[in-house]
Amino acid sequence: MLNTFFQAIQHNDIEFVTQNIGKFKDMQDNQGNTGLMVAAYMGRTDIVEILKSSQIQKQNKNGFTALMSAASTGNDQIVKILLDEVNLRASNGTTALMCAAQIGSVKCCQQLQKEIGLKNLNGVTALHLAMAQGHHCLINILIDELEIQDIEQRTCLMIAAINNQFKCIDELIKHQCLITKQDIHKKTALRYVFDSIDIIKDIIDEGVRKEKLEAIKSIIKCLLPLEYELMADDMVSTLMLFCYNRMPVPKKLVETQSKQKQEEGITALMLAAQSGNISAVQQLKEFEINMQDKRGRTATMFAASQGQLDCFKLTYNDEFGLRDINGAGVLHYAAQGGNVQIMNLLTKFKGQTDCYGNSALMFAINAKQLNTVDYLAATEADIVNNDKLTPLMCCAKNDFLGGCQYFEGQGGQVDVNGYTAVQWAAMCDSTECFLPLLELENLKNNRHLMFQAVEKNSYKVLKLIIDCARRDFSPLVDYNFTALQRGLCSKLTQITSKKYNQLQDGLDPLDAAVLYNASECVEVLAPFYRFKTEKPFTPLMFAVQNESLSIQAIKTLVGYFGGIGLRKNVNGFKVGTTALMIAKKNGARKEVIDVLEDYERDCVDADGKKASDM
To answer: Over the stretch 210-255, which tens digit does the pLDDT of each residue have?
Structure first.
C-alpha cells in the first residue's frame, strides 16, 4: 500500500495524498524514506506543504532528510519550506548545504547558510564539494569555510587543483590564507596542480588538452613564487616537477634546488633526461652530472631507457662508464628503450653483462623490444646468464613470440634447474609462446608440462592445452592448431604424476591442481577430466580436505564429481563413501559442507550409512 502512496506523490495526485495522509503519515519504506522525502525529491511543492507537519525532521536509514532531497535537486522553493530540518546530519555527516553545493545551486546555498562550517566524517565542507565540481560561483557564498581543511588537511584550493577546476583555482589563489598550506603528505596546491598534468595529457581532444595545459601554466606561474620551496614527503622538488613535465625551468629553481634527490635518489637531471626536457638537461648538467640514484642509475641511463637521443648525447660522454648496482651498463638501458641510434653509439659495450650474467639482449627481450633484439641477436645470442638461461628461455618467460624466431637453434637446452624454454612458458603462463615452443622442443624432456603449469597456477596455458587436445573442439573458434600441436597436447593430457616432485604416482593434472591450491586451474581442468573415472577416489575428495582451495573451485568440482563414491575401500573408508562423508569426518570448512549437502546428503556407503550418520 505504501507504494501506492508514493506513486500518487510521483504523479502529483494531491487529492489521493490528502485523503490518505492519516493512513500513511507514520510509514516509511524499507530504506526509511517518507512520502515527504519523495515529494521533496520529485519537486511536488503542494504535497510537501501537505506532508510537512506530519513528516518533518524524519530521516531515512542513511540519515538523509527531505530537506537534503530538495537541496540535492536544487529546488529552492521546497528548501525554503523545509528549513526546519536545517542542521540535521546524515550518517556520514552530510548536510543539506553540502547537497546543494555539490550541484552548484546558488539559491539553495543562500538559504542554507546556517550550516556553513559543518563538516562530514571526512572533514569535508560544502565548499570542498563545490570546488571539486567546479562551482566557482559559490566561493563568495561559502567564504567562511575558506580556511577549513579536511581530515587529510587538504584545503579547498587543493581540492580544486586535484579536480582540474581551473576557474575555481583562479578565484581561490587570490586568498593569501590558502597559499603555502600543506596536507598530511606535505603536498601544496602547487604540487597538486603539477600532479594533474598527467591526467590532462590523456585527454583525446587536442584543443581541450592544449587549453587546459595553458591554464595550468598560468596557475603555476601564480603559485610558483609562493610555494616553490615547499616539498612533499616523497621529496619531489618543484624543480623535478618542471623537469618531468618538460617545462622550461626557471633559473632560480636550478640555483636553489639542484642536487636534491627524491626518495629513490632520483635527481631533476634524471627526470629531465627521461622526459626529453633538453633545455633542462643543459641547465642541470653542470650541477648533477655523474649522480646516481639508489639503484645506481644515471641521467644517461634514464635517457637511454626512454630512447631520448638528444638528452643522451648531452650526458653520455661524462657518464658512459658508470654501472648500476646490479652491474648493468648504459647499453642494457638502451636495449630497453629500443632506440637503435643510441645503440649505434654504444657498440663497444656489446657483449657486456651485469652481475647476474644478463646481456643487453636479455634486457631487450624483457622489454619486448623487437628492433633491439634484431640489432643485438647476431652478437649476443650465445650469451647465457649465471642461471644458464638462454635468450630463447627469456623469450618464453616474457611470452615474447616475436623474439623466439631469432633463437630457434637454442631449443632443447636446459638451465641450471633443468628447465627448457617450453617449461618456462608453461610456468609463466606464456600462451603466445607455448605451442610453438612445444613443437620445437617436443616431449622428450618435457613430459610434466601440465604439472609445472599447475604448480605455478598457469591456468591460461592449461586451457590452451585442453582446447588443443579436445577432439570435439568447435571449428567456429578453432585457433588453427597444427596436427603436431594437437597430438602433443593430447599426449600431455594423458601423462600422470609419475616421478614429478613429491606427488604420489598416478595423479592427473586436476588432482595436482587440487593439492597445489590452484583454484583457477581446477576450474579449467575439471570439465576435461570429469570422465577420467578409473581411480578409486575423485578430485573432489582431495578438495574437501584442502583448507585453501576457493569455494568457487569446490563448486566446480561438485558440479562434475558430486555424488560419486569411492570405488573400493581406501584408508578406512568404505566403498561408496562420498566427499561429504570425508568432509564431515575430517572437520572441513562449514561452507564446503554446505555446498556438498545439496548433492550428497542422501548418498550411502557400502554399510548403508549416510553423511548424517557420521
So the answer is: 888 888 888 998 899 889 899 899 999 999 999 999 999 999 999 9
- The answer to whether 281 and 268 are in contact (CB under 8 A) is no
Q: What are the grid coordinates assigned to 467, written together?
A: 582446447
**Among 426, 423, 418, 398, which Cα is nearest to 521's?**
426
| CA–CA dist 186, 182 (Å, integer) | 5
User: Quick check: is 414 in a domain?
Assistant: yes
Instruction: Say how far residue 103 (Cα) sits from the centre of its chain.
Output: 30
Give yes or no for residue 477 having a pLDDT over 60: no
> Which residues on neighbouring strands pair with residue 604, listed in sequence order?
610
Please tell me whether residues 539 and 572 are part of one structural domain.
yes
Burial tier of 198 (Cβ tally within 10 Å: 0-12, 13-18, 19+): exposed
* Residue 475: domain span: 393-528
Residue that terminates a domain, selected from 246, 275, 305: 305
Asked if residue 400 and residue 349 are part of one domain, the reply reads no
The cell numbers describing 542, all together, are: 582431495
Inform me whether the pLDDT recorded for 475 exceeds 60: no
Kindly report, residue by residue over 556-572, the tens digit of the pLDDT: 999 998 888 878 877 77
The CA distance from 541 to 562, in Å, is 9
> How is residue 320 written as a grid cell?
658512459
Helix 278-288 to helix 309-319 angle (10° resolution) is 10
Is residue 362 in a domain?
yes
- Give the max Cα distance, the chain: 95
In a 13 Å sphere around the CA of 297, the CA atoms on its Cβ side amount to: 22
Instruction: Count how many domains the chain has.
Output: 4
Measured distance CA(70)–CA(35) in Å, rounded: 13
Residue 575 has pLDDT above 90, yes or no: no
Q: How far apart are CA 241 and CA 188, in angstroms?
A: 13
**Cα angle 340, 344, 348; round to 5:** 135
Instruction: Write 558-565 long-range contacts (CB < 8 A, 24+).
Output: 558/595, 558/596, 558/599, 559/526, 560/526, 560/527, 560/530, 561/526, 561/530, 562/596, 562/599, 562/600, 563/599, 563/600, 563/603, 564/533, 564/538, 564/540, 565/603, 565/605
- Asked if residues 379 and 348 have their Cβ atoms less than 8 Å apart, the reply is no
CA distance 349 to 335: 11
Domain boundary among 371, 386, 401: 386
Please, which residues bridge with residue 359 across strands?
353
The overall average pLDDT reported for the chain is 91
Average pLDDT over residues 95-115: 98
